[in-house]
Amino acid sequence: MSSGAGQQQVVSQQAPVxxxxxxxxxxxxxxxxxxxxxxxxxxxxxxxxxxxxxxxxTRQCVQTADALKITVMAxxxxxAGPAGSPGAVNLPIRVAATDGENTLxxxxxxxxxxxxxxGTTQYVFTDANVVIPGGAGSFAKIYVGFDEGPYNN
Length: 153
Description:
Organism: Mycoplana ramosa
Mean pLDDT: 86
Largest sheet: 4 strands, mixed
Strand content: over 45%
Shape: elongated
Structural class: mainly beta
Protein name: Lipoprotein
């Protein structure tokens, strides 16, 4: 009598998914600090409204049959300057995914942060909508940074 008698083999009806690599997140050189100045002022330390920084980054990837969906997160800090005051400000944060010279994803967000009366706070920025082709994960790089360019994606 065979030991395999009576056993049934279960066959999945879904197409196989090859596990892809989850691309690393980088802070692009020169884009981790953003300063806002009072109207008409530039590079005057006494006219700084606030300074925001990005420091630590992380990501989470979910592989599907044809795409890699990535949730990108970046931790930051904002400090009111000598000309600043408490209140909400919009930070221009771009997330971009590249594969060599090819841009796979790019989105510029207006991320709202409230400066408290203490004048400083930490924040976490999240973009949960990064989607790149499934096979690009091992070659792709994700960049997060401040971008004062136009909001055309």
